[in-house]
Amino acid sequence: MAYSLVLLPGDGTGPEVMREAVKVLKAVQDSFGVSFDSFPFPAGGQYYMDTGAEWPDGAFESCKAADAILLGAVGLPDVSLPNGDLAGVGVVFGLRFGLDLYANVRPTKLYPNVLHKVHQHFKQVWEPGKVDFVIVRENTEGLYTPARGFLTRGGIDELAVDSRIITRKGAERVIRYAFELSTRRKGAPSDGTHRLTCVDKSNVTAGCKLFRRIYEEVASDYP
Q: 139 Cβ partners below 8 Å, 6+ apart?
């Protein structure tokens, strides 16, 4: 069985990163007996400059049908859409909202022999094996909802507004996803305990108060 992959190299360092990612996939394919069918599409600021579109017709449909999507980076300095948005951001939001990718999952793990650049010098700061956690962030609500705009007078932008939207449905599903992910992991490197920390500003904002309340409700299902 071959896994279907859509490759979106994009702009800037995106193509460079994608080339290295493809090398890794080739190594996985050779070492573990899996196979990948890759379907590359141009996308982003340069493609917009060339064609007037952020990505080709049919690219989203291919992404929707694929087993996985690899996105490099999109956007170039000073290349904007008529509304002022960065050309290429429609690719990111098109995937995010079109495929309902509500959980932004960012694993952080320190491997042996990886030095850290601190004060212009590479050194061993943290101990490998003791840094292993995952950040889960809600990806389709909050400040990403299209409730924003400018107040312009005499050609001068005087006010910019971004409304932060948090719903019970959006909060509960990403919180439950995080709890389920925690149960599948090995626990903290120090003691093996499964922990989930809710990071918010519930002491100040109404949206975070709702999010925290839902977090505590869901937490009761994961004693």
A: 96, 101, 102, 103, 104, 174
**Side-chain half-sphere of 123: how many Cα atoms within 13 Å?**
5
Phi, psi (5° rounding) for residue 74? -130, 145
Q: Does pTM top 0.90 for this prediction?
A: no
Burial, 212: exposed, middle or buried (Cβ in 10 Å; 0-12, 13-18, 19+)? middle
Beta bridge mates, 8: 71
Nearest to 145 by CA among 199, 96, 212, 178: 96
Residue 166 and residue 144 in contact, taking contact as beta carbons nearer than 8 Å: no
| 120-144 residue pLDDT tens | 889 888 888 899 999 999 999 998 8
d(CA 170, CA 138): 8
